Amino acid sequence: MRYVFEVGMLKRAKRTGWWIAGVPSPESIADHSFRVGIIGAILAAMEGADPARVALLCLLHDTQETRVGDIPHIGRRYLTAAPNEKVTADQVDGCPPEVSMMIQAAVDEYEDKETLEARVANDADKLECLVQAVEYRSQGNANVQPWIDSSLASLKTSSARQLAEAALNTDVIGWRA
Q1: What tens digit of pLDDT does each residue of 104-115 get?
Q2: Backbone phi, then psi, for 107, in 5-degree steps?
Q3: 3-state DSSP call for residue 14?
Q4: Which residues pair with 159 in a beta bridge?
């Protein structure tokens, strides 16, 4: 339960890069991870990967930020955080072995980017950032274009690029019709 309480902190921890863009009340890390999981499952279906595995990788991809924080891109120029695999090992120390192994294996796979599922999960992370930036732009924040550009440039799969183009050309509240 210590791990469960720890990851609960992600519901309160804000994504710091959006403050740099001038977003007054940015999404939480948990908000981000939730939609990364949904996007990941969608991309997995489009790419022929395992949607459940991708969703799990997405769900766990930022859990280390309970201990190292959400270091914005510019901060990484000056700070070196412990590798996510090491942070995860410390986080799950004391969990039942089968739980520790499951979580550690998922984080290791995500970070290695060797499997199709890991590549799709990484694209889901970048695509969610792009989608969030598009939403913030629609709310009047003109400073988010660099996040859109860098997210778009980092996408690897054709399905992620396809969805990114759709995100850039879709009314963010058009779903209500």
Answers
A1: 999 999 999 999
A2: -65, -45
A3: strand
A4: none
